[in-house]
Specification:
- It contains seven helices and seven strands.
- The chain is of the alpha/beta class.
- The chain has helices spanning 13-24, 37-50, 67-81, 106-138, 162-182, 206-214, 226-237, and strands at residues 4-7, 28-33, 57-61, 86-89, 145-149, 188-194, 247-251.
- It has one domain (4-251): NAD(P)-binding Rossmann-like Domain (Rossmann fold).
- Helix 5 (162-182) links the parallel strand 5 and strand 6 (188-194).
- The N and C termini lie far apart (50 Å).
- The protein is globular, with a radius of gyration of 18 Å.
- Bound molecules: NADP nicotinamide-adenine-dinucleotide phosphate.
């Protein structure tokens, strides 16, 4: 029986990259998306191909910011696969309008925090409770993991997207508290902190980052690709870091080195 991964926001971008790398290492997949069913189906079909007939993948629409949708997403996973080995909290949204923080609105703040913070927190809670149940029957061979995708914005101040930066800083602490709480149940919890990755999210600021990367923003002078994040998640999924939890894995071309 394959291990099962539930990846939020896996229709496009980083989530899709994670799904593809997990398919390569033999995980069955629940590919969550918000509205883009065609992209989700494409990811599903590509993952099944990569899995060479051994991987089962399903799509499930759900808005991670909505409690009933989170319940439905976990229930779908239970009904379809009867198990969950890995939750990847990847879905996230960028700051609406990239407004200067003096112009930021409460409406945008609540919307973004609902998806970027409240969603992963309560989805992790649901997943953790189910994983604890499964651990009781599955024994030591069952090694559940929770991975959350944050950002270099967790510690880098951008004054035109305060809400986004604050959401990623909050997620970073979320990883620590879940890691501390769940270790006794054999559930290990990780933060993946991407740098600048080529996806639809960064499409509108491509020219800006092209110039910054060429100018030395990161020691490794290239855009990150969704596959770079996917490989880090696949390493965790394959239990290559068995004595770590609460760990931050920077996948950022060395941005965090803060070179001068
Ligand atoms: P993206 O290209 O905009 O893709 C976003 C994905 O999330 C899509 O699959 C989208 O589904 C889904 N999604 C959006 N809102 C959702 C919701 N409410 N519920 C469920 N799914 C939802 O973004 P990305 O660049 O891949 O970013 C993925 C994660 O990485 C985010 O958490 C982001 O903050 C983080 N990150 C990105 C970068 C970067 O440079 N790109 C850097 C650091 C961190 P639909 O296709 O259905 O819309």
């Amino acid at each position: 029986m394959n291990p099962v991964a539930l990846i939020t926001g896996a229709s496009r971008g980083i989530g899709r990259g994670i799904a593809m790398e997990l398919a390569k290492v033999g995980h069955d997949l629940v590919i969550n998306y918000a509205g883009n069913a065609d992209a989700a189906k494409q990811t599903r079909d590509d993952c099944v191909k990569l899995g060479a007939g051994k991987v089962h993948a399903e799509i499930c629409q759900a808005d991670v910011g909505v409690a009933a949708d989170r319940q439905r997403l976990v229930e779908f996973t239970r009904q379809t696969f009867s198990r969950l080995d890995l939750l990847v909290n990847n879905a996230g949204v960028a700051s609406r309008g990239r407004l200067d923080l003096l112009d930021a609105t409460e409406e945008n703040f609540d919307w973004l925090m609902g998806i970027n913070v409240k969603g992963p927190f309560f989805l992790s809670q649901l997943a953790a409770k189910w994983m604890i149940e499964q651990r009781k029957s599955g024994g030591d061979g069952y090694k559940p993991r929770i991975v959350t995708v944050t950002s270099i914005s967790a510690y880098t101040a951008s004054t035109n997207r305060a809400d986004y930066c604050m959401s990623k800083a909050a997620l970073s602490m979320m990883v620590k508290v879940f890691a501390a709480r769940l270790a006794e149940h054999g559930i290990h919890v990780f933060e993946i902190r991407p740098g600048v990755i080529a996806t639809d999210m960064t499409g509108p600021v491509k020219a800006k980052y092209d110039a910054l990367i060429a100018g030395g923003l990161t020691p490794i002078k290239r855009w990150g690709q969704p596959e770079d994040i996917g490989r880090a998640v696949a390493a965790i999924a394959q239990d290559l870091l068995p004595f770590s939890t609460g760990e931050v894995i920077n996948v950022d071309g060395g941005f965090h080195l803060r070179t001068i």
